[in-house]
Specification:
single chain, mainly alpha, 3 helices, 72% helix, 0% strand
Length: 69
């Protein structure tokens, strides 16, 4: 019963939140270029983590509001 209620409350986890990032560095890249590529990849992944955390926090808030009603 609890699992059925949980499934009804929580939507599917967004595909974007399951993605991972690669640095995009290739053999022969200069060190400064490699650092820039890694920094960009890390920035993208950090932004994705923040979006997913915000999504999760909103789902919890919404679920709590529904449980009170």
């Amino acid at each position: 019963m609890g699992e059925a209620r949980a499934a009804a409350i929580w939507p599917e986890y967004p595909d974007d939140c399951r993605r991972t990032s690669r640095g995009g560095i290739t053999e022969g890249d200069r060190l400064d270029v490699a650092v820039l590529k890694l920094d960009e990849a890390l920035s993208r992944q950090n932004a994705r983590t923040r979006r997913c955390a915000d999504w999760y926090d909103q789902q919890r808030t919404d679920a709590s509001a529904r449980a009170v009603q």
